[in-house]
Write a structure and sequence with these properties.
By secondary structure, this protein is mainly alpha-helical. It is built from five helices and two strands, in the order H-H-H-E-E-H-H. Strand 1 and strand 2 form a beta hairpin. Helix 3 runs antiparallel to helix 4. The structure holds protoporphyrin IX containing FE (2 copies). One protoporphyrin IX containing FE (HEM) binds next to helix 1, helix 3, helix 4 and helix 5.
């Protein structure tokens, strides 16, 4: 992307919206699965499916515009590391909702968006009160992927935030200000 001074408002809006959704959903997912807060599950699934719409818009924009150029010249190794990290973050934003949907769908628990069913719950006729998986292997794959990719996402986001702070505090460049849409500084 050519303009080194500013990013389009839609890029900034989508970055912060998707970032807030991903961090909120990761926190919610960790909390609800550890405390067995079943009431939160439909909220997590509904918000996760809605997040996928914004994620798709964001990926479409990145495919069209490419990743933003650095605000100032940097070493080829750092430039490559930043591009790989941004590419991995973008891939994880897509893989997290897809793995969640695979898990919830194939396990027979089902999911939807605030009451609109997308994959129905399937009761086990042989064991009342229990769920019958549509496909136990795919459900397990989705579960494992959602769990481990979730940790990878949090690790990369921590590095990403440290990198943004390094730009701002140590390099004193406009990387963070540009993403915040600030003209000064
Ligand atoms: C869009 C971004 C999403 C993020 C960042 C996210 C993140 C997470 C995280 C970090 C966990 C805790 C995993 C663990 O420690 O095992 C979790 C749990 C879970 N997520 Fe998501 N999730 C997203 C979307 C979805 C979607 C779309 C669905 C289903 C439609 C879903 C279904 C679930 C379920 C059922 C659990 C509980 C797993 C368990 O009880 O072991 N997630 N999520
Ligand atoms: C408080 C948290 C965050 C801060 C301070 C932050 C900061 C930034 C900054 C300053 C840039 C611009 C980098 C450049 O100009 O080269 C950026 C880009 C980027 N960020 Fe974040 N970010 C945060 C959270 C996240 C999260 C949670 C994700 C994804 C899950 C994410 C994904 C990306 C990606 C893919 C880019 C590449 C450019 C783009 O696609 O817009 N960020 N971030």
């Amino acid at each position: 992307m050519a303009d080194l001074d500013k990013l389009p408002p839609s890029s900034r809006l989508l970055h912060w919206l998707v970032a807030a959704l991903m961090l909120g959903l990761a926190g919610m997912g960790l909390y609800m699965s550890r405390t067995e807060a079943w009431a939160l599950y439909p909220w997590h699934k509904s918000l996760g499916v809605i997040a996928l719409l914004f994620i798709a818009l964001r990926l479409g924009q990145r495919l069209r515009l490419g990743l933003p150029d650095p605000v100032q010249a940097t070493s080829p190794a750092l430039h490559l590391a930043a591009r790989w990290a941004h590419g991995a973050l973008l891939a994880l934003t897509l893989l997290m909702p897809l793995s969640g949907m695979l898990f919830s769908g194939a396990s027979g628990h089902g999911f939807g968006v605030f009451g609109l069913t997308l994959v129905p719950h399937q009761d086990d006729p042989a064991k009342p009160g229990e769920v019958l998986p549509y496909n136990a292997t795919l459900a397990d794959l989705g579960h494992q992927a959602h769990h481990w990719l979730g940790y990878l996402l949090l690790l990369l986001v921590a590095l990403h935030v440290l990198a943004a702070l390094k730009h701002h505090v140590i390099d004193r460049d406009r990387t963070l200000l540009r993403m915040l849409g600030r003209k000064d500084g």
